[in-house]
C-alpha cells in the first residue's frame, strides 16, 4: 500500500492567520469573542473554547460584551457588523483573509461609482454575505445557470467570485454572464491556494485507488474537494476525525492519497496518516508526505523503533542457535541473502541473458531467471522476442508468478507497456488538455454513446461528444473511424473517454477565424435582425452575430430598439469595432446618415414658411418640431400680434401652426420662428374697407374747401418801382 499526503493540504494562509491571531491574543489574557465560527472545523473551535474564546452568532446583546474584544473571522463581515461593535465601544481584531479583504475593496469601489456587482458563490455562505454587504443593494449572487437567467440585462457590472469557488464553476458561468452584461469587468478572485488545492485533488484522484478527504462536514471547500475527488475516484471517503478513518475497505495494493480542506489543522492530517500507516493489516510500501516535514520525521522515527526491535530479536535468536548451525548452513544463508526478494505484481528491472524464438530469459537478481514468453510481444504471438530484444538489454517487467511449475518465474512485459501507454493517455488528458488527436474505430452503440478502440484500449464517446448537433440515431457512426481527443481517463473502468465534438469544434473555430478576418472597422455590411433586446439588436451579417447598440441606432433618443426596428428586417450598417479574439462586432446605423442639424441651413431657408407641430410650451415661448431631432423656437413675442401672458393663450401642445423662418444657426442648434410675422403680412395684404360708425359715435364734419385764386402779388407788397425790371 502506498500512502501520499497532498502538498496543498491543511490550513490556507487566511485561516492560519486568523487562528494564530486568536490563539496569540487569548494566551495574552484578552477576553475574546468571535462573530460566527472562525473556521468550519469543530476540533479547532473546541480547542479555542478551552482558551476562553466565546462565539456569538448575532448582534443582539452586545452591550453585555463591553470590555471584551471582537474577532472578525477569516470569511470577513459586512460593514454593519463593524458599525455595531463601534457603536458599543467594543475593540475589534480584524482577521479577515487578505484575499477576501481585497474583494471587499473592489466591490465597495464599484458601489461608490454606482456600478452593479455580481458575485459567483453560495448565497448563504458567510464570505458571500460579507461581500454582498460591501457591494450594497445593487448586487447579485449567482451559482448556476438559473441564477444567471434571472439576472437583469445590465449596461455594466463588476464580477467577482467567492474565494473557494471551483474554477470550473467560474469558467462555466462566465460566458453566460457576459451575455447579460454589455461592459463586464470580470475579476477571478478565486484564492490561488484553493485553485492549486483543487487542481492537485483532481490530479491525485485520477491516479488513486482510494482518496481520503479530511475536513469538517460543514466546510464548503472540503465538500467541494470531496465532490471533485469522487468524480474521478469512486472510492473516495470524507472523514472529519481520526475515529472515522476507513481501514477495513483498504487493500495492500492500493494507492491512497490524503487531501484536506483549508480548515483542517496539520495535526489532524498527521493523526490520520499515522493511524493508516500503523494498521497491522496493511503493508505500507512507500509514503510521500507533502504537508509537514514533521510528519515524515514521525513516520521515520516509528520505522527506526520497529527496526531496532526487530534487530534485537534477531540477535537474540542468532545467539541461541549459533552453536547449532553448520558451516554449510551459514554458507547457504549468505547465498540466500544475496538474492532479492520478489512478490507477485511487483515491477522490476532485469537484464536479458538469453533469447530463443519463443522466449526471453531475464536475470532479475532472483535465485532463478524470469521468462518472457512470445505472447508478451504481440497480441497474436506472431512476433519473436529476438526481433525486439538483444542479450544485455535492460527491460522493465512485472512478476506474474514465482513458480510456473518448473521453478521458473513468469514475467510480463505487456502490463508494463500497457501501464506506460495508459500513463501517456492520462498525461495527454491532463496536461495536453486534449490537444493530441487519435483515431477511434467505432464497434458498438450503447445507451448514452459509442464504444470503440484507441490503440487497443476501450474507448467511450458520450453521445454529447459525437457531434456539434444532436444526433438522433448513433448507429450512423458504426464501423467508422473518428478523429478524437482524450478528455478523461476512467480509472475505475480502465477505459478512455474521448470526444469527436472537440475535433469538429476546433475545425469550426478555424473556419470562424477565417470568417471573422473578413470584417474590418469601417466596412458597410448588410444583415438581418435576429434578436432585439433592451440595449440593442443582434444582426446576422453573414454567419456572424453583431451587436447594434441602442445608442448607435438613431441620432434621436429612442426608448427601445423595438420602436424603430423589427426581427427579420434587413438593414445596412457600418462596422464600428471588431474583436476577433472575443468574437465581437459592434455596428452603427445612424453613422450612415447625416446628423439632422448638419442640413438645417439647406432645408430651412430664412424667409421660408413651414408647418410645424407644437411639442412643448415654456414661459418664454413654444418649442416646435420641424423634424425628428430638430426643434425650433417661437418666442412669446412672435406667437401673436398682441401681447400674451402665456403661450398657451394662443397655441397649445399638439397644434399644427404655420410659421416663418427668421434665423438659422446650425452650430448653436438654434432656429428662430415667427407666427406673428405671418399674421401681420396677411393683414397688410387684406383689402381696405369703408369705416362704419355706429349711431352713438360722434361725427366730425370737415368743411368743404373753397376755391381760391392766388397770385404771387398776394405774397409780395407793391412798391414805387413797379414796372421796372
Order of neighbouring strands in the sheet with most strands: 11-10-12-1-13
Uncertain spans: 280-339, 694-702, 705-716, 718-725
Helix residue percentage? 25-40%
**Span between termini:** 163 Å
3D shape: flat
Q: Would you tell me the structural class of the helices and strands?
A: alpha/beta
Mean pLDDT across every amino acid position: 80
What are the defining features of this structure?
five-stranded parallel sheet, 725 residues, disordered C terminus, flat, 33 strands, alpha/beta, five-stranded mixed barrel
Description:
- 27% of the residues are buried.
- The longest helix has 29 residues, at 293-321.
- Residues 280-339, 694-702, 705-716 and 718-725 have low confidence and may be disordered.
- It is flat, with a radius of gyration of 46 Å.
- 28% of the residues lie in helices and 28% in strands.
- The strands form seven sheets. The protein has a five-stranded parallel β-sheet with strand order 11-10-12-1-13, with helices on both faces.
- With 725 residues, it is of the alpha/beta class.
What is the topology?
Layout: E1 2-5, H1 13-27, E2 32-35, H2 42-50, E3 54-56, E4 69-72, H3 79-87, E5 91-94, H4 98-112, E6 116-120, H5 126-135, E7 139-142, H6 145-149, E8 154-161, H7 167-180, E9 181-186, H8 192-206, E10 210-214, H9 220-232, E11 236-239, E12 255-260, H10 266-277, E13 286-289, H11 293-321, H12 327-338, E14 347-355, E15 359-363, E16 370-373, E17 394-401, E18 409-412, H13 414-430, E19 437-446, E20 449-454, E21 457-462, E22 481-490, E23 495-499, H14 501-516, E24 524-533, E25 536-540, E26 545-549, E27 570-579, E28 584-588, H15 600-603, E29 609-618, E30 621-627, E31 630-635, E32 656-665, E33 670-674, H16 676-685
Amino acid at each position: 500500500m502506498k500512502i501520499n499526503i497532498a502538498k496543498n493540504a491543511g490550513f490556507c494562509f487566511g485561516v492560519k492567520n486568523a487562528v494564530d491571531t486568536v490563539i496569540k491574543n487569548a494566551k495574552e489574557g484578552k477576553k475574546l469573542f468571535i462573530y460566527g465560527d472562525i473556521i468550519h472545523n469543530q476540533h479547532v473551535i473546541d480547542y479555542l473554547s478551552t482558551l476562553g474564546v466565546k462565539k456569538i452568532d448575532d448582534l443582539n446583546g452586545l452591550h453585555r460584551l463591553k470590555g471584551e474584544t471582537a474577532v472578525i473571522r477569516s470569511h470577513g463581515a459586512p460593514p454593519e457588523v463593524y458599525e455595531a461593535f463601534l457603536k458599543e465601544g467594543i475593540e475589534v481584531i480584524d482577521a479577515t483573509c487578505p484575499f477576501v479583504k481585497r474583494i471587499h475593496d473592489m466591490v465597495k469601489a464599484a458601489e461608490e461609482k454606482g456600478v452593479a456587482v455580481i458575485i459567483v458563490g453560495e448565497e448563504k455562505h458567510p464570505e458571500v454575505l460579507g461581500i454582498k454587504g460591501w457591494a450594497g443593494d445593487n448586487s447579485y449572487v449567482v451559482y448556476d445557470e438559473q441564477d444567471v437567467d434571472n439576472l437583469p440585462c445590465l449596461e455594466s457590472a463588476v464580477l467577482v467570485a467567492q474565494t473557494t469557488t471551483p474554477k470550473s464553476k467560474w469558467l462555466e458561468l462566465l460566458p453566460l454572464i457576459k451575455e447579460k452584461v454589455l461592459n463586464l469587468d470580470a475579476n477571478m478572485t478565486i484564492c490561488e491556494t484553493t485553485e492549486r488545492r483543487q487542481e492537485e485533488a483532481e490530479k491525485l484522484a485520477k491516479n488513486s485507488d482510494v482518496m481520503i478527504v479530511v475536513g469538517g462536514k460543514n466546510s464548503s471547500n472540503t465538500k467541494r474537494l470531496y465532490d471533485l475527488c469522487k468524480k474521478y475516484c469512486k472510492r473516495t471517503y470524507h472523514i472529519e476525525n481520526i475515529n472515522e478513518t476507513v481501514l477495513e475497505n483498504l487493500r495492500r495494493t492500493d494507492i491512497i492519497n490524503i487531501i484536506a480542506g483549508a480548515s483542517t489543522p496539520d495535526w489532524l492530517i498527521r493523526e490520520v496518516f499515522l493511524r493508516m500507516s500503523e494498521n497491522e493489516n496493511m503493508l505500507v510500501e512507500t509514503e510521500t508526505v507533502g504537508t509537514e516535514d514533521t510528519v515524515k520525521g514521525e513516520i521515520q522515527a516509528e520505522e527506526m523503533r520497529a527496526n531496532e526491535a526487530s534487530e534485537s530479536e534477531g540477535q537474540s535468536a542468532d545467539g541461541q542457535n549459533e552453536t547449532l548451525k553448520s558451516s554449510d548452513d551459514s554458507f547457504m544463508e549468505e547465498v540466500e541473502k544475496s538474492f532479492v526478494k520478489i512478490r507477485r505484481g511487483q515491477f522490476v528491472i532485469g537484464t536479458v541473458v538469453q533469447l530463443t524464438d519463443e522466449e526471453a530469459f531475464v536475470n532479475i537478481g532472483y535465485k532463478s531467471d524470469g521468462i518472457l514468453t512470445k505472447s508478451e510481444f504481440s497480441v497474436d504471438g506472431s512476433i519473436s522476442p529476438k526481433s525486439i530484444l538483444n542479450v544485455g538489454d535492460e527491460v522493465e517487467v512485472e512478476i506474474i508468478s514465482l513458480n510456473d511449475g518448473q521453478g521458473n518465474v513468469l514475467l510480463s512485459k505487456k502490463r508494463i507497456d500497457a501501464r506506460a501507454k495508459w500513463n501517456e493517455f492520462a498525461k495527454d488528458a491532463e496536461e495536453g488538455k486534449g490537444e493530441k488527436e487519435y483515431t477511434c474505430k467505432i464497434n458498438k452503440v450503447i445507451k448514452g454513446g459509442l464504444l470503440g478502440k484507441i490503440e487497443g484500449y476501450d474507448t467511450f464517446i458520450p453521445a454529447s461528444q459525437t457531434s456539434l448537433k444532436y444526433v438522433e440515431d448513433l448507429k450512423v457512426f458504426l464501423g467508422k473511424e473518428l478523429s478524437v481527443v482524450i478528455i478523461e481517463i476512467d480509472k475505475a473502468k480502465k477505459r478512455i473517454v474521448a470526444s469527436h465534438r472537440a475535433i469538429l469544434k476546433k475545425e469550426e473555430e478555424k473556419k470562424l477565424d477565417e470568417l471573422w478576418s473578413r470584417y474590418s472597422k469601417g466596412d458597410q455590411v448588410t444583415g438581418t435582425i435576429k434578436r432585439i433586446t433592451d440595449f440593442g439588436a443582434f444582426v446576422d451579417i453573414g454567419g456572424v452575430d453583431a451587436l447594434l447598440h441602442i445608442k448607435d441606432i438613431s441620432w434621436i433618443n429612442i426608448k427601445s430598439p423595438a420602436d424603430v426596428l423589427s426581427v427579420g428586417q434587413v438593414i445596412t450598417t457600418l462596422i464600428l469595432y471588431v474583436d476577433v479574439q472575443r468574437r465581437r462586432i459592434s455596428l452603427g446605423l445612424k453613422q450612415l446618415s447625416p446628423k439632422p442639424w448638419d442640413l438645417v441651413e439647406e432645408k430651412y431657408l430664412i424667409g421660408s414658411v413651414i408647418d410645424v407641430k407644437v411639442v412643448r410650451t415654456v414661459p418664454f415661448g413654444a418649442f416646435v418640431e420641424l423634424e425628428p431631432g430638430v426643434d425650433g423656437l417661437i418666442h412669446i413675442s412672435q406667437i401673436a400680434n398682441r401681447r400674451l401672458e402665456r403661450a398657451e393663450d394662443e397655441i397649445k401642445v399638439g397644434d399644427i401652426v404655420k410659421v416663418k423662418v427668421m434665423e438659422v444657426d446650425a452650430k448653436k442648434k438654434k432656429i428662430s420662428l415667427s407666427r406673428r410675422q405671418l399674421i401681420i403680412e396677411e393683414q397688410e395684404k387684406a383689402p381696405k374697407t369703408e369705416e362704419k360708425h355706429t349711431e352713438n359715435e360722434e361725427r366730425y364734419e370737415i368743411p368743404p374747401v373753397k376755391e381760391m385764386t392766388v397770385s404771387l402779388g398776394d405774397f409780395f407788397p407793391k412798391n414805387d418801382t413797379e414796372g421796372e425790371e
